[in-house]
Design goal:
alpha/beta; TIM Barrel; eight-stranded parallel barrel; 8 helices; 35% helix; Sugar_Epim/Isomerase; hydroxypyruvate isomerase activity; HPT_OtnI_isomerases
Length: 268
């Protein structure tokens, strides 16, 4: 059965961030993910994980200046030192949080940049991140993101994710694809076929409904069927619930019950 992780950047936003760990555990989740932990001390987050018996499934490396529109640094010429510092910081947090996977955001393609330069920088940065992750016993993931939600994002296709993993030639299988069903359907479609092609590279999975990015119990994609397919193939990783609830988070969790998310009070 797929293991569902609540994305605390999108879910349980009815309460403050550090209180979302308790809310996720009470709702029946055993794992969590989120965008970034860096506004909080790693020890404070680790204490919440321990207190509520939660596993940290994934978080992102520092993205640069998020408020100014940066969405990662991995492809950006001239920002290599910032990227490498972010790798070190992310791995430090991962150690404290017991997190096996960290996501390296590629960044927004500068319009004036030479595509060959961006690719060369990206590959070098991925190679560095994967080598550092290997030393720490962690895995780096890369995620194709659809151009509707994030225009100009450097890594947009599943095929490019596989290509860059090959070019980076990472040690010990420490560079994987973060396969988001929502982004794949939004930009490419053919999600089940894409999943099959990504299978050897699969490091993490995320879900949301298309369109709307809400609970995966409606829309044009049968997420339940796709999760069953993952299960049948023997996927043992986490599935991040990276969606925006239509209302209160707990009111929209009925879909997750058959995947083992059962509230601590036993109500269904």
């Amino acid at each position: 059965m797929p293991r569902l992780a609540a994305n605390l950047s999108m879910m349980f936003t009815e309460v403050d961030f550090l209180d979302r760990f308790a809310a996720a555990a009470a709702a029946g989740f055993q794992g969590v993910e989120y965008l970034f932990p860096y506004a909080w001390a790693a020890g404070d987050i680790a204490e919440r994980l321990r207190a509520h018996g939660l596993t940290q499934a994934l978080f992102n490396m520092p993205p640069g200046d998020w408020e100014a529109g940066e969405r990662g640094l991995a492809c950006l010429p001239g920002r290599e030192a910032d990227f490498r510092a972010g790798v070190v910081e992310a791995l430090s947090y991962a150690e404290t949080l017991g997190c096996a996977r960290i996501h390296a955001m590629a960044g927004i393609r500068p319009p004036e940049a030479d595509p060959a330069d961006l690719e060369a920088v990206y590959v070098r940065n991925l190679r560095f991140a994967a080598a550092e992750a290997a030393k720490a016993g962690r895995i780096v993931t890369i995620e194709p993101i659809n151009p509707i939600d994030m225009p100009g994002y450097f890594l947009a296709t599943q095929a490019d994710a596989r290509r860059f993993i090959g070019l980076a030639d990472a040690p010990d299988d420490t560079l994987k694809v973060q396969f988001d069903l929502y982004h794949c359907q939004m930009s490419e479609g053919g999600v089940s076929r894409a999943m099959d092609r990504q299978w050897p590279f699969l490091g993490h999975v995320q879900i949301a409904a298309v369109p709307g990015r809400n609970e995966p119990d409606q829309g044009e994609m049968d997420v339940g069927w796709l999760l069953d397919r993952l299960d049948a193939r023997g996927y043992e990783g986490w599935v991040g619930c990276e969606y925006r609830p239509r209302g209160a988070t707990t009111d929209g969790l009925a879909w997750a019950r058959r995947f083992g998310v059962v509230p601590q009070d036993g109500r269904t």
